[in-house]
Write a structure and sequence with these properties.
By secondary structure, the protein is an alpha/beta fold. The protein has 2 domains: 125 residues, 3-Layer(aba) Sandwich (Rossmann fold), CATH 3.40.50.1000; 65 residues, DNA polymerase, domain 1, CATH 1.10.150. Helices cover 48% and strands 14% of the residues. It is built from 10 helices and 7 strands. The strands form 2 sheets. The chain has a 5-stranded parallel beta sheet with strand order 5-4-1-6-7. A two-stranded antiparallel ribbon has the order 2-3. It is globular, with a radius of gyration of 17 Å. The model has no long low-confidence stretch (mean pLDDT 96).
């Protein structure tokens, strides 16, 4: 018999939302007057994003580092606009999350930096108020998934126990990291599969 689950912890990109890197890159390129190739390299090839996710860079330090890579000033409003343009909430998955609220408190843990932590309500307003006070970025814990510390520190913030938490992520490495930390975990492929997994824990 499966244990009682009191918290369902969701990943963001690829689970609660669709995320299109090309749209993000193209939008930020237009807003900063730089080429898409330059923006893509600055975000994904410079190491800045990984440092931000791990909490090495705070929000302004991240923007400053991105600006140095692009030889321009990158402001939070433009970064947010690009991320929002690239992000679309998945209504069916959000409906499932909302349906859990009276049985298993929903939470969110995403590999993102302090800037995302600040701007998430503007980027995906559909997540709120459901995830208000329960949405966290890895930078806030100084560790990114799949490091065990990322999950355990997040659960401390949520006042949840690993053995009573189900983690949902589309990345196999993150799913395995959660299991190594003592959480139950489901690899997300679609809403139907998630619904079936929730049913297995008596949460349908």
């Amino acid at each position: 018999m499966n244990p009682a689950i009191r918290c369902v912890l969701f990943d963001l990109d690829g689970v609660l939302v669709d995320y299109d890197r090309d749209v993000r890159v193209g939008t930020l390129a237009r807003l900063t007057g730089r080429t898409s190739a330059a923006v893509r390299a600055a975000i994904y090839a410079s190491g800045i994003e990984e440092d931000a996710d791990a909490g090495v860079l705070d929000a302004q330090a991240y923007l400053d580092a991105l600006g140095r890579e692009l030889d321009t000033v990158v402001v939070a409003a433009d970064w947010t606009a690009a991320r929002r343009a690239a992000t679309r909430a998945r209504s069916e998955v959000l409906a499932l999350a909302a349906s859990l609220a009276d049985r298993a408190a929903p939470g969110l843990l995403t590999n993102n930096g302090w800037l995302m932590a600040q701007q998430l309500p503007a980027i995906v307003p559909e997540l709120f108020p459901l995830f208000a006070g329960r949405a966290f970025c890895a930078a806030q814990f100084g560790a990114a998934k799949p490091a065990e510390q990322a999950y355990l520190r997040c659960l401390q913030a949520l006042d949840a126990l690993p053995q009573a938490t189900l983690f949902v992520d589309d990345n196999p490495a993150n799913v395995e990291g959660a299991r190594a930390a003592g959480l139950h975990a489901h690899r997300f492929t679609d809403a139907a599969g998630l619904r079936q997994a929730l049913a297995g824990f008596g949460l349908s």
